[in-house]
Design goal:
The protein is α/β, with parallel strands linked by helices and about 220 residues long. It has helices spanning about 15-30, 40-45, 55-65, 70-80, 90-95, 200-210, and strands spanning about 1-5, 30-35, 50, 85-90, 100, 105, 115, 130-135, 150-155, 160-165, 170-175, 180-185, 190. About 25% of the residues lie in helices and about 30% in strands. It is globular, with a radius of gyration of 16 Å.
Length: about 220
Amino acid sequence: MRLVALIDYGSGNLHSAGRALREAARLGGTGHEIRITHRPEDILAAERVVLPGVGHFADCAAGLRAQAGVVEALEAACLTGGKPFLGICVGMQLMAETGREDGATPGLGWLKGEVTRIAPGPGYRIPHMGWNGLALPAAPHPVLSGLGEDPHVYFTHSYAFAASAPEDVAATAGYGAEAITAAVARGNLFGTQFHPEKSQATGLRILSNFLTWDPS
């Protein structure tokens, strides 16, 4: 069994993320089982782990830490064990050291940096909501490969990951005066500020890439 653990901690588009991952597995013929779970044993048994997240950083951090043994299992599976990890929206932000929404809240500290309020400038609304193009490097990360020219994805957020290390930024999106971090990556860790499960064909391609990605 090729298990993907989709973490349930009371926050996130669990069912839409689950449907999109199942469709990506079907289209790619990968044979993965997508299991919505908060059981540490499922995380440790999984081949891959997905952490979604919708809402405030502090609420999501508290909800995750309230699940007995889940943070420890995530660290054992993904930090120590090297299993491919995908964080979506606030699930990606939680990889940071600190979130600045509603005061300073500790994140997981997997990547150096903090989550700060976006500042696009006059005439741009916050939250940043809707479709935006991705700016990719000439050689994109494997999870972002094959997206075609000018790929667009769906965002809804007011805060973004300010990574301390520029090499941890895998994609950006322009919004007014600010280049927003759209994706982060380091080793077996990957995260998107946008919602691949809401990004139609481009999002399905990203999820399919994640299901076949070998970061070793």
